[in-house]
Amino acid sequence: GYKFWQTQPVGKLGDKEKIEKEGPFKEIDIEQVRKEPYPMADGFEWVTMDLLDEEELKEVFELLYGHYVEDDEAMFRFNYSKSFLKWALRSPGWKRDWHVGLRATQSRKLVAFISAIPVDLRVRDKVLKASEVNFLVVHKKLRSKRLTPVLIKEITRRCYLEGVFQAIYTAGVVLPKPISTCRYFHRSIDWQKLHDVGFSPLPKGSKPSYQVRKYQLPDHTATKGLRAMEHKDIDAVHDLLTRYLRRFDMSPEFSKEEIEHWLLHKPKEFEEQVVWSYVVEDPQTKSIYDFFSFYCLESSVINNPIHTNVRAAYLFYYATETVFFPDSSREDLKTCLNALINDALILAKKYKFDVFNALTLQDNALFLDQQKFGGGDGQLHYYLYNYNANPIAGGVDARNNV
Ligand code: YNC
Ligand code: MG
């Protein structure tokens, strides 16, 4: 297997040997990188999508809407909104050249897509000028024709030409070779709807009314000083999150501009709200002690007479000053995170989400059980391109589950 991947600068699946010196698999000489796109099969041609253009954005939206990631039983398919795609693909430093499409020459129809955005990625003590590759999709009628390796080679070429020689990406499938693996956990908010669409089975010996009661939430949040994040909080959140993320082996390093982009909702730019962020402000000192965020990603329900969409909130970045207090214990962190995440659930209910999802990363193990999350079938594998590094336990890039 892995006819393509075995030719690429990535680790081998069986390899268990400790890497003594982490670093690139190969040095790239920009002069040696080919200047023209890879040859494409007859009848298809490369295009660079212009995601500032509403029509082209809509074409990418529609390709993903019909053909992107489904669960194993083909009951649900991710339904990324156009606002989400603007948010995810037009982040600070984004490059038009990294929005790569494939069109059928005759009909002009968009039949495949792959994208990258820039990221300063810290792996242990090294910071890589990397790209984050996402939204790889091939039209259902063109599957198994080996278009994927060409799409990957083309986005790699375009990254190399910009002096970016490493990448991070995630996938549900196993490829050579995961640097980390997380599991999805789900916390029902509207259990009845999740049951009706076939997402949540009725546990043996239970009744629907028990399940509904189990997942009930209060109408109001409990944390004193909790409020929506504002523009004036950017510096404080940037400082807190930067210190918090240093506790993990791998994380992005955010600029203030990136904090603003990824965390603040801009009603003028986005028709639909994509991200919700909250801070906890001390009433006396006005200092920010905690913050959390979640984003909205709906899934289409593929074959249901009543429900067309499941509205899911995904836990995004969070941080708390608790870990930096002298003498603070793991138990203190656990108490604090449970209070924060319970409020996040209450807010998600207020904003009409059906389910709240989180991965087994960062400090999430401290609240998943207590907040009634259940383990899902889905796994998410994290990969690095052209970087040889030892496996990483927890603490990966939360943005990469988009
Ligand atoms: C996948 N998800 O193993 P071998 S995730 C990477 N990521 O190669 P064909 C994948 N590779 O085994 P199909 C992959 N899925 O021979 C399959 N492959 O070495 C490999 N689904 O190609 C596979 N989106 O074109 C095999 O397969 C080769 O027609 C076969 O197309 C695959 O965005 C796909 O799940 C996934 O649209 C496009 O099934 C298609 O089946 C599809 O014959 C639904 O391909 C949507 C879906 C994937 C979501 C994602 C991250 C992508 C990362 C790509 C790798 C980036 C590397 C870094 C580049 C930059 C470097 C720098 C600097
Ligand atoms: Mg194909």
Look up the CATH topology of the largest domain: Aminopeptidase
Judging by the overall fold, what is the CATH architecture of the largest domain? 3-Layer(aba) Sandwich
What is the radius of gyration? 22 Å
State the separation between the terminal residues, measured CA to CA: 28 Å
Listed once per kind, the bound small molecules are: tetradec-13-ynoic acid - COA thioester, magnesium ion
The percent of residues in helical segments reads 10-25%
What would CATH call the homologous superfamily of the largest domain? Answer: Gcn5-related N-acetyltransferase (GNAT)
Largest sheet: 14 strands, mixed
Please describe what this structure looks like.
The protein has 402 residues and is an alpha+beta fold. It folds into two domains: 5-171, Gcn5-related N-acetyltransferase (GNAT) (Aminopeptidase, 3-Layer(aba) Sandwich), CATH 3.40.630.30; 181-401, Gcn5-related N-acetyltransferase (GNAT) (Aminopeptidase, 3-Layer(aba) Sandwich), CATH 3.40.630. Helix content is 23%, strand content 28%. The protein has eight helices and 14 strands. Strands 1, 2, 3, 4, 5, 6, 7, 8, 9, 10, 11, 12, 13 and 14 form a 14-stranded mixed sheet that branches. It is globular and about 60 Å long. It starts with 43 loop residues before the first strand and ends in a 17-residue tail after the last strand. Bound molecules: tetradec-13-ynoic acid - COA thioester and magnesium ion. The site of tetradec-13-ynoic acid - COA thioester has 35 residues, from strand 5, helix 3 and strand 6. Residues 138, 142-148 line the site of magnesium ion (MG).
